[in-house]
Amino acid sequence: MNLFPNCPIPLTEYPRVLLAHGGGGRLTQNLIEKMLLPSFDNPFLAPLHDGALISLGEQRLALSTDSYVVHPPFFPGGDIGRLAVFGTANDLAMCGARPLFLSCALILEEGLPMEDLWRIIVSMKEAAQEADVQIVTGDSKVVERGKGDGIFINTAGIGAVLPGVEVGPQQVQAGDEIVLSGPLGLHGIAIMALREGLSLDADVKSDSAPVFPMVKALAEEGIEIHMLRDPTRGGLSSALNEMATKSRIGMLIEEERLPIGPEVQGVCEILGLDPLYVANEGNFIAVVKEGQSEQAVEVLRKNPSGRQAVCIGRAVTEHPQTVVMRTRIRGERIVDVMSGEQLPRIC
Amino acid sequence: MRYLDEYRDGAAAQKMLRRIAGTITRPWTIMEVCGSQTHALLKYGIDQLLPDKLTLIHGPGCPVCVTPVEIIDQAIALAARPDVIFTSYGDMLRVPGSGKDLLSVKAEGGDVRMVYSPMDALKIARENPDKKTVFFAIGFETTAPANAMAAFLAERDGVDSFFMLTSHVLIPPAIETIASSPDNRVQGFLAPGHVCTVTGYTQYETLAAKYRLPIVVTGFEPLDLLQGIYMLIKQLETGGYTVENQYARSVARDGNPQAQALIDKVFEVVDHKWRGIGTIPLSGLRLKGPYARFDAITALGVESPPSQEASACIAGLVLQGVKKPVDCPAFATDCTPEHCLGAPMVSSEGACAAYYLYSRREKAIT
Amino acid sequence: MCLGIPGEILSIEVDEQQMRKAKVRFGGITRDAYLDLVPEAAVGDYVIVHVGFAISKVDAERARETFQLLEEME
Fold first, then answer.
1. Which helix (H) or strand (E) covers residue B316, if one does?
2. pLDDT, greater one: A14 or B67
3. CATH assignment, B5-64+173-245
4. What is the SS3 assignment for B39?
5. Taking 50 as the threshold, does the pLDDT of residue A5 lie above it?
6. What's the whole-model pTM score?
7. Does domain A52-161 have CATH number 3.40.1550.20?
8. Interface test with A, best of B5, B34, B44, B326 (most A CBs within 10 A)
9. Where are the domains of chain C?
């Protein structure tokens, strides 16, 4: 019996939510595009950017929200609290906005050690100071033991869009250059290594950090930014594919230019992961006007988080809506959206 | 990373491609047997850089793809039992049986855990004596020694809570099936380098002589594949049909004796059904002697309803190299990695998945 | 025919199952692998590791030869 005859994802296909629906790849897209978007349908939601752009009189604002369910809650380079503050602040930055105010909602599991909660709260306070935002309202709830995996956090944020900055898929044109601000894979690999008990030579830490200062620096330098995106879950691939799809242009990137450190490479090799799909936290992609990438890279490299900034490719008219990578050996391959959870392989 | 990065060098690859182009004078059809080799060819875009005269056919070297659907149904039945901890390599979790896959069983509450090694599964069994830990032991000869070791230790230490659901397949019989078929178009083979690391390549010498087909034992990095292809073409152009070893840094002619001894101790060779292809004589491994008691099917009495395949799936034809994934009407339409009709679309070594992920195809505008 | 990755043996010990276990470095990370299938492998050697087991020792000489062939081409 089909209880929801109008349900767009046939129940027979996925009668239950799978972990893959949260992976940031195609199934996540399906969930959003087939269930959420048509239900909530309005012009602010439709662009499906990292945040919504709204205007109050003359002032352009950005509004964004994200929930944080990372496990384990404490990891090298950060914790769920720090992630929750920087993550939403960065989503606002990706709208070209200065992050200003955050809300914070906590869902706590009965039995969570008070000391862990305190550590997380202090971490959020410090992160807020570092990101120059204020947490102005919040909520906390407790659920019974076994129903909550420690702690879940939701943060929502408001930011003021920088004057003169207008980012969006419709701004992207063929010839635009794609700049990546920092190395790939650190966050995902730090978590993976912890989960799998891999010991890493150097300290691989999550790169969780606020990116607004870098966005601001680009704007102040006069760089014409057409689009911004942070490659979080689903990795660089998801971010580039979303941009390509919405802008309806093609993208061509160069494998040799991608900044991938030896630890990330090592973990990816032995677990059979593709670094293009590993989550990042403290870096972002800026699609800038043709001819400006060199200057953009120079500006970014002045920031401690941007030392490995590099131009990785450009927007092209060929293969619209598809991301293509020129490989190390000069062949070409498609960089497709990841389908579900990247399952480490053996064979 | 040493012994890896240098085999991905762009300049050397270009040199090798020029060499291949300069050597080939006639059309040739060759098969790379291993799914990992197929993926590498497509991932680096090598298939497009090779001369048009060279046709690549992708082989059945994907153990996930060839695991019979009956066994997957049995895995699903076992995983759903409350007293079972079902452990498996990541690849198998999304492969569809007659109805669902192991990931769905997990979503429904089954204790399904991904492991990277049979030793992880053995550890779980040791730590959970009150449950039955079943390990999904699939693979080719490369993986057989590790799986054998797990059974060996379980027997040695009396780990009665450990079981193996096995689907082990052997490569040479598969090559023979392809080579002996009246429709065979393959004129030379790139043999799988890690399988041969374990087994050596004397069996391949027999095949090469019997069917007069050149075989080159090849690695998995771009330069390995290009060099292997070059060596094969040289033989084809001169009418040779011997076995050469491109992957000499890992493969010795007699292979790994310790690994072979362990396999012989724990397993016996039996006929085996390959999904999409059918039964190939003496192409599988089964637990024997004191190790037979760990076989999950006999020990745990698995019931599953009669198995069936999705009718649109042409995996068998793809695995035998008769069709390419893009020839399948369901490719990228009804059959995608998120919603697949057969294993090759969802296995990390499957040919269909490789084409879907890396190869230029018309992107549907939705 | 599967994920076999080359790594360098840093140290070897005998574990609680009387198995020969090594710490192997792959690029920037270290992970354990069993050496029971390659008894001649020693610290400093490179091995190909598959599902937690070394299945061969990398023959540096043959690797060098392969490379030389590649280098000599034009």
1. helix B315-319
2. B67
3. 3.40.50.11750
4. helix
5. no
6. 0.87
7. no
8. B44
9. 5-72
B100 touches chain A (CB under 8 A): no
A301 contacts: CB under 8 Å, gap ≥ 6: A307, A308, A309
Distance between first and last Cα of chain B: 41
Neighbours of chain A (3+ CB pairs under 8 A): B, C
Domain ranges within chain B, ordered by starting residue: 5-64+173-245, 68-170+255-261+282-300, 315-358
The dihedral through the CA atoms of A24, A30, A33, A39 has a sign that is negative
| Domain B68-170+255-261+282-300 fold | Rossmann fold (3.40.50)
DSSP-assigned letters across all residues of A270-308:
HHT--GGGS--SS--EEEE-TT-HHHHHHHHHTSGGGTT
pLDDT bracket for residue A290 (50, 70, 90): very high
Closest chain C C-alpha to A256 CA, distance in angstroms: 17
> What's the mean per-residue pLDDT of chain A?
88
CA geometry: angle B288, B294, B295, nearest 5 deg: 75
Contact A263 C29 (CB under 8 A): yes
**C5-20 residue pLDDT tens:** 999 999 999 999 999 9
Residue A143 identity (one-letter amino acid)? V
- Judged by CB atoms closer than 8 Å, whether chains meet at B8 and A30 is answered as no
Contacts of A189 (CB under 8 A, 6+ apart): A204, A263, A264, A267, A268, A278
Question: What pLDDT digit, counting tens, does each position of A101-147 carry?
Answer: 999 999 999 999 999 999 999 999 999 999 999 999 999 999 999 88
Find chain A residues with C-beta within 8 A of B356's C-beta. Answer: 336
The answer to whether the CB atoms of C53 and B149 lie below 8 A apart is yes
Residues B12-29, mean pLDDT to the nearest whole number: 94
**B62 contacts chain A (CB < 8 A):** yes
Cβ-based contacts under 8 A for chains B and C: 123
C2 confidence band (pLDDT: 50, 70, 90)? low
Q: Could you tell me the end-to-end alpha-carbon distance of chain C, in angstroms, rounded to an integer?
A: 30
Contact A347 B89 (CB under 8 A): yes
Residues of chain A with CATH 3.30.1330.10: 52-161
Alpha carbons A116 and A3: distance in angstroms, whole number:
42
Q: How confident is the model at residue C74 (pLDDT cuts 50, 70, 90)?
A: low
- Does residue A8 have a pLDDT over 90? no
Domain(s) of CATH 3.90.650.10: residues in chain A:
169-334
Query: Would you call B3 and C70 a contact, using CB atoms and an 8 Å cutoff?
Result: no
Chain A neighbours among B 185-214 (CB < 8 Å)?
none
Could you tell me which chains touch chain B, where touching means 3 or more CB pairs under 8 A? A, C
Fold of C5-72: SH3 type barrels. (2.30.30)
CATH classification number, A169-334, choose in 3.90.650.10, 3.30.365.10, 3.40.1190.20, 3.30.420.40: 3.90.650.10
